[in-house]
Amino acid sequence: MIIDLRSDTVTRPTSGMLDAMMNAEVGDDVYKEDPTVNILEEKVAAMFGMDTALFFPSGTMANQAAIKLHTQPGEQLIADAYAHIYNYEGGGVSFNSGVSCKLIQGHRGMITADQVAVSINPPDFYHSPLTSLVCVENTANKGGGACYDFKEIKKIRNICTQNDLRFHLDGARLWNALVAKGENPKQYGEVFDTISVCLSKGLGAPMGSLLLGKQSIMNKAIRVRKLLGGGMRQIGYMAAAGLYAIDHHIDRLADDHKKAKEIGEALEGLSFVKNVAPIDTNIVIFTITGNEEDFIAKMAKKNIHFYGMGEGKLRFVTHLDYTATMHEYFLTILSSF
Ligand SMILES: *Cc1c(COP(=O)(O)O)cnc(C)c1O
């Protein structure tokens, strides 16, 4: 038995998902003739009460397209210093859009409206880059799967409206936040100009993200996706996996969250564990007193795999393929350390 807690992206399609994929009706999506992709795009747009959605091969491409849609070269966006768009998208913000990032030192990857307000460059001060976009991440990945208080998001929306800024949500794990907080996707559709959501994280599909947005903004999205090389043909097979995931794998995220909390409680009881970060969803971040590499190697010998995140932090991520049996075994191993 191999226990892989490196990420919630390591899952394999379930048999139900594979059946849905094999039975998908497909066509050429570059001509917008793939019926399954069209159903997926309409379904997710409707879930969030947004005008329209576009299927992307990856979350990175969906975020990068959004940034391109909202900005002009030379402008600046505001984001938390932990933001995925800044840290883990290969420098795409500058490469694809010629945009710089004003980074905010937030709390667990989350920023406040007050912090945003003081980070906006005065629009008539032409020496500074023009601020045109605010990006937030929910849940915040590097922040340990932290969930925003929706009231703060609404406050940031107001700051954006007052200052004529666009507002993008990197919602790769928004599903986890919706389940953890009992929120309605339509709340998010009301306040953001664009939202990206991933099908290949907690939802367990092999690939795919969607970018949702207002029609006036999204009109150009298909052109941007094309220039980023993201046009896809009979991709309905993958859209079918996404549809299956949305119908079957959202509510069960609560189970991943429960397991993560139980792992956190087990860690709290261990003498060599220095600190366990608060656990809102399916990500557990902790620090230990000893050598991290030794701990990772010892666990690997017991077929338990996970990553260090730098700065002495270690991370476990629970997911669809982390079963109850694995969980029981893992808790036993932990308590014997
Ligand atoms: C995974 C992730 C993405 C997108 O990643 P891809 O691997 O390109 O699909 C974007 N934002 C966050 C916060 C993520 O965790």
TrEMBL record:
CDD domains: TA_like. The keyword Signal does not apply. Keywords: Pyridoxal phosphate. Its cofactor is pyridoxal 5'-phosphate. It comes from the Bacteria. Residues 4-286 form the Aromatic amino acid beta-eliminating lyase/threonine aldolase domain. SUPFAM superfamilies: PLP-dependent transferases. InterPro entries: ArAA_b-elim_lyase/Thr_aldolase (IPR001597), Low_specificity_L-TA-like (IPR023603), PyrdxlP-dep_Trfase (IPR015424), PyrdxlP-dep_Trfase_major (IPR015421), PyrdxlP-dep_Trfase_small (IPR015422). Belongs to the threonine aldolase family. This is GntG family PLP-dependent aldolase. It comes from Aquimarina addita.
